[in-house]
Amino acid sequence: MGRHTLEYPKSKTNTVRRKADRATYALSAIHSLINASHFLDVAFNPPDDSPFPTILPMIGHMGSFDRPSADLGDPLDLYLHGYVSSRMMNLARSSASSSQGGDDEEEKQGQGQQQQQGLPVCIAASHVDALILATSPFNHSYNYRSATLFGHATLVTDDAEKLYAMELITNGIVPGRWAASRQPPTPAEMQSTSILRVAVASGSAKFRDGGVRDDRHDLEDDEAQGRVWTGVLPVFTRIGEPIPTGYSKVETPADVKDFVREYNRENEEYVFAAAKK
Amino acid sequence: MGRHTLEYPKSKTNTVRRKADRATYALSAIHSLINASHFLDVAFNPPDDSPFPTILPMIGHMGSFDRPSADLGDPLDLYLHGYVSSRMMNLARSSASSSQGGDDEEEKQGQGQQQQQGLPVCIAASHVDALILATSPFNHSYNYRSATLFGHATLVTDDAEKLYAMELITNGIVPGRWAASRQPPTPAEMQSTSILRVAVASGSAKFRDGGVRDDRHDLEDDEAQGRVWTGVLPVFTRIGEPIPTGYSKVETPADVKDFVREYNRENEEYVFAAAKK
């Protein structure tokens, strides 16, 4: 309240063209959607002569190592969890070193950005909230929320930042899980895990809520209205009853049960409320 | 039974490098995962001078217009639903015309493929099946199934094929929905809807099932096993109680209720069974 709502500036890269009234550029909305996704799809162009971009599903979370108290509406980096050996990590490592001193890309972008090192990536997170079954098949739709980020990915080399990102990502899966699991990390664990930091260049989000939107001619079509059922099928992600390993001496803790209950309640409430908008 | 299981040939583009034992190249497995996804993430390189690939969430389904009786283990095309005005459709249209007669790309790929027109795309579908909470944060994982396809997208211009694809995609959302909704399409509906056909060049899928896999030193760590709860949180997509529009004269039909019940039963059973493997 009383604060500015920061937005990613619109450019050729991030501007939503189709149904622009469903778009938002607010950092808080975009960052929330990214954080609410179990998987993020990360697209990049591999170094070989393949004509195809590649998508890898990865786990990630928004954060700021320099200002850990930053909130979701602030400028943030995206931290991605990966593996030393993967193609993408190698690319991020080599882009970081090979682009040092070059500023061609900055000039090409022409948006007054600082020199950007790293691998250009696009990140997408999508949530389906309902199947919209209309009278005409052509008015069928989904309620959904989707976010897209564009940025440059580089390997995190500083151990303190790596730890910060691992804690961030682990707590993003289940709140408080980092402290609740075995600490501290072993040197081998630190070595075998890689973290990518994506410096975000721009982003956007798009959503649909509400119910069926039929054309007038279908609403006035007595034959169709007498034959075609129309309505909304709400869709949500649910976490089932926890399955303990059995070898841990600990009973399923209250905070795990609370997390599951709250996660399910929030998801289900959201999609029913969105369908009624 | 008694049939060959067709697989996409391994190449630089589609070979899974990390944890290769979790990979499959079987057409049936990959095509099933694509069809089971409400959204597909489609990556392509936009025509501007942006360094970033772009991802659009789209709705799609595997099919064969030439051989509609083909099953999921057969070579199939991917049909994607889109809009005439979108950037991607324009690219697919212009790639189709500008690449006619040219075979540079074929030679570059050097894999004996036939001349490929169209926009190079990568398509990804991911399903999270469980959160795996291990003793060490570094052994945390997901159960998941993810599929990736690579191919060339072109606009479908033939009306019969467009109708075939619309029926395929509509029935992919709710089985039988095409015939159960208002028919036939109006000329305006046919005009305003575009379909992309992706000629699939290669693909792969990757999955994890089972429970927590802890390191021996963590299993033997009494302090950790006395303090850290470990287990599996199963994750599944659920469809809630249908919400009728109210203006249709039809009660929620038995086949919609059956679809919702079966969808929920199958999804929930799968993730619990996968966690116990």
TrEMBL record, chains A, B:
It comes from the Eukaryota. InterPro entries: Pyridox_Oxase-rel, Split_barrel_FMN-bd. Residues 91-118 are annotated as: Disordered. Pfam families: Pyridox_ox_2. This is Flavin-nucleotide-binding protein. It comes from Trichoderma citrinoviride.
